[in-house]
Design goal:
It is built from 16 helices and 24 strands. By secondary structure, it is α+β, with helices and mostly antiparallel strands. It folds into three domains: about 100 residues, Nucleic acid-binding proteins (OB fold (Dihydrolipoamide Acetyltransferase, E2P)); about 260 residues, BirA Bifunctional Protein, domain 2 (2-Layer Sandwich), CATH 3.30.930; about 140 residues, 2-Layer Sandwich (Gyrase A, domain 2). The strands form six sheets. It has an eight-stranded mixed β-sheet with strand order 6-9-10-24-23-22-19-12, sandwiched between helices. Helix 10 packs across helix 12 and helix 13 runs antiparallel to helix 14. It starts with 17 loop residues before the first strand and ends in a 6-residue tail after the last helix. Bound molecules: aspartic acid. Aspartic acid binds next to strand 23 and strand 24.
Length: about 600
């Protein structure tokens, strides 16, 4: 090696030792006589001092140094003189007195400062020069943690008898509800491979193959419309086990997450044990299947009060079989009109026609003593004081509080209420950023009605096992079928998803039929797994958990691109390689692909 030790590993215990370091010039200060540089490598920074009296050649060389030059320097470690210790630096108790220095490479002036962590750099520029962006200590720490997460997972599962098995990237469509990325075949013109949306069928085939316990750090490709926190490719811990029930999978994942977080990020406040909620409970109480449980703000159903009211918005929603639902926000009853209007706007961006708020003035002695003067609400003229009291009591709002109410089709109303709940949680700073509140959401419906296309979609995917109590509704009332299907959520984000699987051909075919696949489509897309089910498929189940999301949660990154070494932009572009790109005409010809304008 060109070095004897890393910059960041030096400390007081090396006092007096001769070391050789290699790294980048992080910063340079010329104090007339002495030149100081902070030298940086992946492990950290150390101060190197060039003294013209002690090492005139090295000092002369250091006069030319600029930021990001790569140098090799030999010198003696020494404890810094009293009064010059730098507690902000891990190596701040010592410095290295340079004796010899070699320039290994020069650098142009970088397009942005690498040394200044607080500098806001345009993200496109960071991505264009990702190899410089990744030099920033914060990014190096994130990728180090990511490595540790994956290593922890591998070791943990290895100890429990799992095999890590790779599955192909060039495969056939493995639908998970997104569009496929396709790869044209040169050898078979007109035919295409699809990149896996997940290894779902492959891992099930591995269970049929008797592999018993499988996992993979798997790349999954989904050609979905761009969204802030979405990438065309993402990494999952994909896992499957034979001869298990739902609880076996959940217990394993809880143990993995708990021990991993306690080992790798002990500073986080992990709440144990993980909460368990049914999908129904989650929707009723929090209006979402991925609730942030760090704060309350629970929902109350107001449909019965609404049905009896003179207020048309409420009564007609109730009579259409829609829902009227809301929650109380402590202390927000004195919100200014502008703040209330902002909430109405937010509701509208989520698809609501409007939002009904009821702000209760703090001066009211109690709900019983409420007068019209204490109430600010667009519905105040249409609701009696008794109705307002009943609503307030239901959502647990008293004087000084605010009630937020949405009326409409359940899907829209829940989306709106969940967004408002999140917003109020943020505004009132109800969530502790260091707390990790995991919950398993279980008993998901197997199907979800697709309003636009008037058909049933799989809530997650087609391979989940209906539970015994509701399988009878499979054909008659698919919306009622509950599956052994679960998600793991944390602080309002989905972290993992999985299920116990169907393992019989006939049941799997019935599910495909509900999803509207024709016999030919099923044969063409799924014959491999249906055939396999006929050769002794064991009971099996599994889960896949997002690695990118997990690293985001553990590092507190608020942007998925910050936890991926070479991410794509929000618009699915790689600005560094400039991908996607045009290809040579000859390549297209070879593939017999032509581009139509
Ligand atoms: N294949 C599923 C997914 O990618 C996870 C699972 O059911 O195991 O979301």
């Amino acid at each position: 090696m060109l070095r004897t030790i890393h910059c960041g590993d030096l400390g007081r215990e090396r006092d007096g030792q001769r070391v050789t370091l290699c790294g980048w010039v992080h910063s340079r200060r010329d104090h007339g006589g002495l030149i100081f540089i902070d030298l940086r490598d992946r492990r950290g920074l150390v101060q190197v001092v060039f003294n013209p009296e002690l090492a005139p050649d090295a000092h002369a060389a250091a006069e030319r140094f600029r930021s990001e030059w790569v140098i090799q320097v030999s010198g003696d470690v020494r404890v810094r003189p009293e009064g010059t210790l730098n507690p902000a630096l891990d190596t701040g108790e010592i410095e290295v007195a340079a004796a010899d220095v070699t320039v290994l490479n020069e650098s142009k002036t970088p397009p942005f400062e690498i040394a200044d962590e607080d500098l806001e750099v345009d993200e496109l520029l960071r991505m264009k020069f990702r190899y410089l962006d990744l030099r920033r200590p914060k990014m190096q720490q994130t990728l180090t943690l990511r490595h540790k997460v994956v290593k922890y997972i591998r070791d943990f599962l290895d100890e429990r008898g799992f095999l890590e098995i790779e599955t192909p990237i060039l495969i056939k469509s493995t639908p998970e509800g997104a569009r496929d990325y396709l790869v044209p075949s040169r050898l078979y013109p007109g035919r295409f491979y699809a990149l896996p949306q997940s290894p779902q069928q492959l891992k099930q085939l591995l269970m049929v193959a008797g592999m018993d316990k499988y996992f993979q750090i798997a790349r999954c490709f989904r050609d979905e419309d761009p969204r802030a926190d979405r990438q065309p490719e993402h990494t999952q811990l994909d896992l499957e086990m034979s001869f298990v029930e739902q609880d076996d999978v959940l217990e394993l994942i809880e143990e993995l997450y708990t021990s991993m977080i306690e080992t790798l990020t002990p500073e986080k406040r992990l709440v144990k044990p993980f909460t368990r909620l049914t999908y129904r409970e989650a929707m009723d109480r929090f209006a979402t299947d991925k609730p942030d449980l760090r704060f309350d703000l629970e929902m109350a159903d107001l449909t019965d009060i609404a049905a009896a009211s003179q207020f048309r918005v409420f009564s007609s929603a109730a009579s259409r079989g829609e829902i009227v639902k809301g929650f109380g926000v402590p202390g927000a009853g004195s919100y200014a009109r502008r703040q209330l209007d902002e909430l109405v706007e937010l509701a509208k961006t989520r698809g609501a026609q409007g939002l009904v708020y009821i702000a209760l003035d703090p001066s009211a002695p109690s709900l019983d003593d409420l007068t019209a003067d204490h109430v600010r609400s667009p519905a105040a003229r249409f609701l009696s004081l008794d109705e307002i009291r009943a609503i307030a009591a239901r959502v647990d709002a008293g004087p000084g509080d605010l009630a937020l109410i949405a009326a409409g089709p359940p899907k829209t109303a829940n989306v709106v209420l969940s967004a408002l709940r999140g917003e109020m949680g943020r505004r009132l700073k109800l969530a502790d950023p260091d707390e990790l509140r995991f919950a398993f959401v279980v008993d998901f419906p197997l199907f979800e009605w697709n309003e636009d296309e008037a058909r049933w979609d799989a809530m997650h995917h087609a391979f989940s096992m209906p539970n015994d109590a509701t399988i009878k509704y499979l054909e008659s009332d698919p919306g009622k079928v509950i599956a052994n299907l679960y998600d793991l959520v944390c602080n309002g984000e989905e972290c993992a998803s999985g299920s116990v699987r169907v393992r019989s051909r006939s049941l799997q075919e019935r599910i495909f039929e509900v999803l509207g696949y024709s016999k030919e489509q099923v044969g063409q897309r799924f014959s491999q797994i249906l055939d396999a089910f006929e050769y002794g498929a064991p009971p099996h189940g599994g889960i896949a958990s997002g690695i990118d999301r997990l690293v985001m949660i553990l590092t507190g990154a608020d942007n998925i691109r910050d936890v991926i070494a070479f991410p794509k932009t929000q618009n699915a572009i790689d600005p560094l390689f400039e991908a996607p790109d045009h290809v040579e005409e000859s390549q297209l010809k070879e593939l017999r692909v032509s581009i139509s304008e």
